[in-house]
Amino acid sequence: MKISLIILVIFFLVSRNYSQSFWELPNVDRHLLLSAFDYDTTKTNLKKIILNRRIDPYRYFDALVILAQKYKETEKDFILSSLYTENSDSLDGAEKARRLYKEKYLYDNIIKGYYGLPEAVDNLIAFANDNSYVAYPACENKMNAVLFLAKGGIYNNFDALKDEYINNYCSVSRHLISNYYGKKLEFRQEILTVIEGKIRENLNDWNNTIPYIVDIEIIGCDAVTGVLDKMLTENMSSESRSGLLRELEKCDMLNQPERIMKVIPIENDPEYRCRYYPYLPFIFNGEAAPADNDKYRDMRGYVMPKFINFLKERILVEESQSCREDAEYFIKKFKPFKPDSTHLLQYLMDDFQNYLEEVNNYGWINENTKYAEYKTQLEYAETNIA
User: Fold this and answer.
1) Of 128-132, 134-138, 241-245, 322-326, where does mean pLDDT reach its minimum?
2) In the chain, how long is the greatest CA-to-CA distance?
3) Model confidence at 270: pLDDT above 80
4) Contact between residue 128 and residue 164 where contact means Cβ atoms under 8 Å apart
5) Would you give the end-to-end CA distance of the chain in angstroms?
6) CA angle (155, 161, 163) in 5-degree steps
7) Global pTM?
8) Which pLDDT does position 294 carry in this prediction?
């Protein structure tokens, strides 16, 4: 019984000394580069900085981080007992509302979380949700609290994050939206709705739109297409529409011809409109059709009947001579995309059948007898491979 009790006590002491961290601290080298002190990272100097009650928050946190990472267990007691906010009982409410205290309170709880103290989680959640804390740099500080919580897998501050993203848009809130909360299914749709709203607010100023585009790109290409596709035909600056198309092309080349067919008729600026017509010398690397490889296969829509027919009809109403000439040259020089011969024969036969019906509907087969002849040949071939 006595041995069991001793083992239990030892386990308890060890578990207290080696509590699991809720999150890791920033990289030491990064903090050395950013720190304002004289690169003296000896234990004595680090302790001196930490104990200096008047030291600025950044130098204070740098010293805490370096000391904790170099001497995590051996200096644990010193670090936790020397935290600024653990020794501030004499401060009144006004002093605790000042920037110095607020920032050190944040840093102290980051350190506590590193040492696995549960109170750090509750403190940072409350800190991030504190609506009374608005003085500069409240957004960065509150969002840094949310960031460390997220690094520890704790996602309890979505409303606070959303509010900061919408109203203040500090860099940390962007990082959280894109790289943490935006990756979580339970928050994803609401986040996309928020970003969509911010993009719509700025559609007439592309430079203001770019940061939100970057945010949604980080979340993923499915987010990009889901949000941007439905905006293309809405009222916006020509520069913004062109920008949205570029972003969509990066994520979904396969459906780009469909988008081009929607955008060309509504783009009033001929300079931008001409950019959307395929320019043959460039579009397929100088070839008349996309090569059958991973790089160009998704561009096959540009040489399919639907897009070619769109160009033929568009030439009749296009007011810009330059745009018209590009379209005419493309139609003159393009070559149909060669079907992938690795497909099953039945798939290829069905594809040929659909192709024949489509070009016939566009009136490209001038003689009914020719259409009937082609159709008969396809049916005969299909019978023989069945």
Assistant:
1) 134-138
2) 103
3) yes
4) no
5) 82
6) 145
7) 0.82
8) 62
